[in-house]
């Protein structure tokens, strides 16, 4: 029997994770991370982080008869997620705040706290899988590694069985120490199976809807938050075509992103897309759809799940967005932290600030942030 802390949002995924581990006989405690500053009316709770969902998690823990606590991470969330989000946009990048939340809050901070409190593992409702080398997977253990895991020096992070719900792209930053103490109990199941299993157990969250919003920007429109918190970054400037001709005016670089077509306010006689943000000239660069395709990119802040920096180029599958297809690519390592990636076929709307993640089949190799040219 292991002592396991389960991070619970109140949704069906983390609720079932807790139920499966509890049924397997482990000492389970549910926790919810409170991320909000109550006096900050510029941030509004979305469905995934609302008080209602906290109460849902509490009800599930009461049903299971397990302890439940709420941890306050308001200051950390402001520092590592919101400030990062605003800083990246103000610098001409398009950030993914969920990646930083996973990196700094859900795993780094929570794993450290779990260790301090004497927990053996942290479990979450992420759709992904963990494997230890030379360990035969037992599908009946709710994803909990056997005793062999503690003695195994190499862990692998894999895509979930349900490819539509797979979240491994968001977890590329996890390393060996992290994977040794993490459990993803639902990675072997489809979403439909998860809902059915939760309903069969009568869990209060079985039919909870999902949120697709940025958690602190319900509706997905981040522009108002930028206008209030970083007004100095919204300097109007020219919209230039690929020949350098001014074809319009923009309202501030952070309000635009690579691949954007709508809302440009220009009339050129053909569809035009944002192809680049020129920080030096404070200019939005636009061009035809064909100009969005790129054969290569540079990535920075790259890490590998194995913890070992590659010494030679290697072939893999590379994914440049959370819901994009992974495509064949060659990765050429540079100085520690940077790689050049060459795609087998051009990719559309490669966006600085987003993540690129490398796969060997279903196995996550690592990833990093797409750099600006």
Task: Kindly list the characteristics that best describe this protein.
373 residues; alpha/beta; six-stranded antiparallel β-barrel; five-stranded parallel β-sheet; 17 strands
How would you explain this protein's 3D organization?
By secondary structure, the chain is α/β, with parallel strands linked by helices. It contains 8 helices and 17 strands. The chain has helices at 12-23, 51-64, 74-90, 97-116, 148-151, 176-179, 191-200, 223-229, and strands at 3-7, 27-34, 68-72, 121-123, 128-132, 155-159, 182-183, 237-240, 246-250, 273-278, 283-287, 293-304, 314-319, 327-333, 339-348, 355-360, 363-370. It has a 6-stranded antiparallel barrel. The longest helix has 20 residues, at 97-116. The relative contact order is 0.13.
Short overview:
This protein has 373 residues and is an alpha/beta fold.
Strand content: 25-35%
Give the helix tally.
8
Give the termini distance in whole angstroms.
Answer: 51 Å
Low-confidence stretches: 38-48, 135-152
Please state the structural category: alpha/beta
What series of H and E elements makes up the topology?
EHEHEHHEEHEHEHHEEEEEEEEEE
Give the rounded overall mean pLDDT: 89
List the helices and strands and how they pair.
Layout: E1 3-7, H1 12-23, E2 27-34, H2 51-64, E3 68-72, H3 74-90, H4 97-116, E4 121-123, E5 128-132, H5 148-151, E6 155-159, H6 176-179, E7 182-183, H7 191-200, H8 223-229, E8 237-240, E9 246-250, E10 273-278, E11 283-287, E12 293-304, E13 314-319, E14 327-333, E15 339-348, E16 355-360, E17 363-370
Parallel strand pairs: 1-2, 1-4, 2-3, 4-7, 8-11
Antiparallel strand pairs: 5-6, 6-17, 8-9, 10-11, 12-15, 12-17, 13-14, 13-16, 14-15, 16-17
């Amino acid at each position: 029997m292991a002592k396991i802390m389960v991070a619970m949002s109140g949704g069906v995924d983390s609720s079932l994770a807790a139920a499966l581990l509890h049924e397997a006989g482990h000492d389970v405690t549910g926790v919810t991370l409170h991320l909000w500053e109550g006096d900050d009316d510029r941030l509004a709770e979305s469905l995934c982080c609302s008080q209602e969902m906290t109460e849902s998690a509490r009800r599930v823990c009461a049903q299971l008869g397990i302890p439940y606590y709420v941890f306050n991470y308001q200051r950390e969330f402001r520092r590592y997620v919101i400030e990062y989000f605003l800083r990246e946009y103000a610098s001409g990048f398009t950030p993914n705040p969920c990646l930083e939340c996973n990196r700094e809050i859900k795993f780094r901070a929570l794993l450290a706290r779990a260790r301090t409190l004497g927990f053996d593992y942290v479990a979450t409702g992420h759709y992904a899988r963990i494997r230890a080398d030379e360990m035969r997977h037992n599908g009946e253990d709710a994803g909990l590694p056997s005793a062999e895991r503690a003695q195994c020096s190499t862990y692998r992070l894999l895509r979930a069985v349900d490819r539509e719900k797979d979240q491994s792209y968001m977890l590329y930053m996890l390393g060996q120490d992290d994977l040794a103490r993490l459990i993803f109990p639902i990675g072997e199941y489809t979403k439909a199976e998860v809902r059915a299993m939760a309903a069969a157990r009568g869990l209060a969250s079985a039919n909870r809807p999902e949120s697709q919003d940025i958690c602190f920007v319900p509706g997905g429109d981040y522009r108002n938050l930028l206008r209030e918190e970083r007004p100095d970054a919204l300097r109007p400037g020219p919209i230039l075509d690929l020949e350098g001709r001014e074809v319009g005016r923009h309202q501030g670089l952070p309000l635009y992103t690579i691949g954007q077509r709508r809302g440009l306010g220009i009339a050129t006689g053909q569809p035009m897309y944002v192809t680049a943000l020129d920080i030096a000239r404070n200019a939005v660069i636009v061009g035809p759809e064909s100009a969005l395709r790129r054969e290569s990119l540079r990535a920075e802040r790259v890490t590998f799940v194995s913890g070992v920096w590659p010494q030679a180029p290697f072939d893999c599958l590379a994914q440049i967005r959370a819901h994009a297809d992974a495509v064949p690519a060659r990765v050429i390592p540079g100085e520690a932290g940077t790689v050049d990636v060459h795609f087998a076929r051009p990719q559309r709307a490669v966006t600085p600030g987003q993540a690129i993640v490398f796969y060997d089949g279903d196995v996550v190799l690592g990833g990093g942030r797409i750099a600006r040219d």
